[in-house]
Amino acid sequence: MDPLPEAEALVDRERLVGSGPVEYSCDASGTPNPTITWYYNGAVIQSGNGSVVVGSDGTLTIPAPQVSHSGIYQCFAANRFGEDSRAWILEVAESGTATRTLG
User: Fold this and answer.
1) How many Å apart are CA 39 and CA 1, to the nearest integer?
2) Are strands 14-16 and 43-44 parallel, antiparallel or unpaired?
3) Mean pLDDT by 10-residue block, N- to C-terminus, for the chain (103 residues)?
4) Which domain holds residue 58?
5) Is residue 28 situated within a structural domain?
6) CA 45 distance to own-chain centroid
7) Domain count, the chain
8) Can you give the CATH number for the domain in which 59 is found?
9) Does the residue 13 lie in any domain?
10) Percent helix, strand and coil across the chain, each to the nearest 5
11) Among candidates 9, 26, 30, which has minimal Cα distance to 79?
12) Does any domain span residue 71?
């Protein structure tokens, strides 16, 4: 088993219509288990503010996307041997339409 962390993003380019939730999955594996950290526009996301939720499984959820949620979301999976990352660009239109792109 490879000790380096490896993050696997399951989201491809997708257009969401309406104001439904946005969810990014940061499936990561490695030995030892990697720690997952989420960033929004370069700043660590603090879960619990209600606007963005980071689950214990590494999933990031935006329950009600707003224009202010537009930006770059990054998932970093790291252990003592290294790190891997994935990035998404989220664009939320005023109409509630969200487009997300795997980077």
Assistant:
1) 28
2) unpaired
3) 48 52 88 93 82 89 86 91 89 65 54
4) 6-97
5) yes
6) 10
7) 1
8) 2.60.40.10
9) yes
10) 5, 50, 45
11) 30
12) yes
